[in-house]
Design brief:
CATH class of the largest domain: Alpha Beta
Helix content: 25-40%
Strand order of the largest sheet: 10-9-8-11-12-14-13
Order of helices and strands: EHEEHEHEEEHEHEHEEHEHEE
Largest sheet: 7 strands, mixed
CATH superfamily of the largest domain: Vaccinia Virus protein VP39
Oligomer: single chain
């Protein structure tokens, strides 16, 4: 009888400031999926799953190097601690599916995995997003994604052209399409994220509206009514001029993935590229900022 396939699980105690860097590391090192758990005793715990085999055994040592580098960069923050466990395939499948349950963001917006089957049709006007994150960020459960969805709910209008810069799972662009956007472009520099987003676009039946591309070459200047970027402040600092330049005068810009303690730096960054801040959204320590350039559209 063939031996059962096994998986490695690495569990990392992580301060919120370091969460983005840790998740990026895990994606880059081939994680099959992430589960973020909020605990009373340990705070944020990130669980990542890897197939057992050549190369995965060294994930722990590579993470140790990352943790030491992060401690040097952020000496005031405790060094991330981790532990590794080995378990059978069936355990991984069930744990992963249990971690992505239906999420009701509002009375008319629900996010659920593709394998979740509702017992009755959705109520009139209700939008259901079927998202399988796999190795891409964006399930709607993280506050930064949730804030983007709730902001898009307020601002997307029929016929809008929307740019999702750093699209991850594609959730934001898919929602914009279901809200009536006529064109949506999602871009990411991670090939696995691009593949994941394309699958989610097909699952949600918006392939005629939403196009997913790798890299920024497809982005047009001064073309979009709305640009959204759910990325960390360090990355945004490098990309903000390009993102702002993609929006037409009077268009809207939505930035998330920002900690509340970074609010001042973010506002200074946006002032430097002539973005006028319209509204700030917040959940826990995370914020999203809605802004515009020129005279805001009506």
């Amino acid at each position: 009888m063939a031996s059962q396939r096994k998986f490695l699980k690495i569990s990392i105690d992580c301060h919120p400031t370091l969460e983005e860097a840790v998740c990026n590391f895990l994606f880059e090192n081939g994680t099959l999926g992430l589960e973020v758990e909020e605990t009373e005793k340990r705070g944020t715990v990130i669980h990542a799953f890897f197939p057992e085999g050549k190369g995965t055994e060294s994930v722990g040592s590579r993470f140790e190097t990352l943790a030491e580098n992060l401690q040097r960069l952020f000496p005031e923050i405790p060094k991330p601690e981790y532990e590794i466990a080995l378990f059978p395939d069936r355990d991984w499948q069930e744990k992963w599916k249990r971690s992505f349950k239906t999420l009701k963001l509002s009375t008319d917006l629900i996010v659920q995995p593709s394998w979740w089957e509702s017992q009755k049709p959705p109520a009139p006007g209700r939008i259901i997003l079927k998202i399988d994150p796999k190795t891409a960020f964006g399930t709607g459960h993280h506050p930064s994604t949730k804030l983007c969805l709730l902001a898009l709910k307020e601002v997307v209008k029929p016929k809008d052209r929307v740019l999702d810069y750093g699209c991850g799972s594609g959730i934001l662009g898919i929602y914009a399409a279901k809200k009536g956007a006529s064109q949506v472009l999602g871009i990411d520099n991670n090939p696995e994220a691009v593949d994941c987003a394309k699958e989610n676009v097909v699952t949600n039946e918006v392939a005629k509206t939403v196009k997913i591309r790798i890299g920024p070459k497809s982005v047009k200047r001064g073309y979009y009514d709305i640009a959204v970027a759910n990325i960390d402040l360090a990355t945004l600092t490098q990309l903000v001029t390009r993102i702002v330049g993609a929006v037409k005068p009077g268009g809207l810009l939505l930035f998330s993935g920002i900690l509340s303690e970074e609010s001042s730096s973010m506002r200074n960054l946006l002032n430097g590229v002539h973005v006028r801040i319209l509204k700030t959204y917040q959940e826990d320590e995370w914020i999203a900022i809605l802004g515009t350039i020129g005279v805001r559209r009506v």
